Amino acid sequence: MNCTKCDRDAVVHAAYSGAHLCEHHLRASVEKRVRRRIRQDGLIGDDATPESPETWLIGLSGGKDSVVLTSILEETFAEDPRIELVALTIHEGIEGYRDESLDAASELADGLDIHHEVVSYTDEFDLEMDDVVEKDPEGMAACAYCGVFRRDLLADYAESFGADKLLTGHNLDDEAQTALMNFFEGDVAQMAKHFDASLGPFDERTETDEFVPRAKPLRDVPEKEVALYAHLADLPVHMAECPHSTEAYRGEIQDLLLDMEERHPGTRHSIMAGYEELAKLAASAYGAKDSDLGECERCGNATTREVCRTCQLTEAVHAV
Ligand code: SF4
């Protein structure tokens, strides 16, 4: 099958748009969608100038999504002095997994000449995920602990770098799964948080000044196209799955969505279009308020509890 846009062989069929794309046009199309999302979300602040550039901190795990995002951002802003990119890799302490993806992240950052920092749960919390899984003081899935620790570190480091934006590599499949999970759980408050934390144009969010704003410029690109882009661009990517991955419910949603997408192309896009509108409405009703936030008694981080969730969990792990 030929590419819809030229005579070259197609490498992918994007059934949701009807297009067959060759290597060149797939890569161009992915880059175009990322740049359009940056524009539509108003990511580049009006105050960003060559004299006073914005710092964008990218969560770079070494997996395909964050590697593709980092590569496209570097290509987009290499000649734009208004934006400075910094990459942060979090080492959770998972044997046989994170060391390899750290190698991929370092190779990419070195090759692109991007400032790259590595931070570990060991240094920050005096624990490793392998131990947390073994001790499991709260009877929770590994990802529930890990997600709390990671969010905390990303926010802390974004602040300590003086970052203006925190960017993560969530793709269309990730976002449609999260949307559907929130629907199925009837969790309107979570929809509001999702919108305020990372969806939609910045001027429509109701977030507080306490957190560095988040963005997901890859969220219009399906996972399969991200993986293909990484392969075709010969980017250093670590493809293995985390041995502690326990998100069974997300896996069920993923299977459901892939099946729906195959039978009804465009399902993920329409879920996200509707979800964003609903999440916006939820955000205006439930939006974050500065008055809800206090300081953690232990670490001083912003929280709605007396002791933040990170301190609760690290203390529980150390007590075992
Ligand atoms: Fe952490 Fe879960 Fe991701 Fe593994 S899959 S790195 S445990 S969040």
TrEMBL record:
Pfam families: ATP_bind_3 (PF01171), TtuA_LIM_N (PF22082). GO terms for cellular component: cytosolic tRNA wobble base thiouridylase complex. Keywords: ATP-binding, Metal-binding, Nucleotide-binding, Transferase, Zinc. Residues 56-192 form the tRNA(Ile)-lysidine/2-thiocytidine synthase N-terminal domain. Residues 2-26 form the 2-thiouridine synthetase TtuA-like N-terminal LIM domain. Zn(2+) 2 binds at C296, C299, C308, C311. CDD domains: CTU1-like (cd01713). This is N-type ATP pyrophosphatase superfamily protein. It comes from Halococcus morrhuae DSM 1307. Zn(2+) 1 binds at C3, C6, C22, H25. GO terms for molecular function: ATP binding; metal ion binding; transferase activity; tRNA binding. The keyword Transmembrane helix does not apply. The keyword Zinc applies. GO terms for biological process: tRNA wobble position uridine thiolation. ATP binds at G59, L60, S61, D65, I90, G169, D174. InterPro entries: CTU1-like_ATP-bd, Ncs6/Tuc1/Ctu1, Rossmann-like_a/b/a_fold, TilS/TtcA_N, tRNA_thiolation_TtcA_Ctu1, TtuA-like_LIM_N.
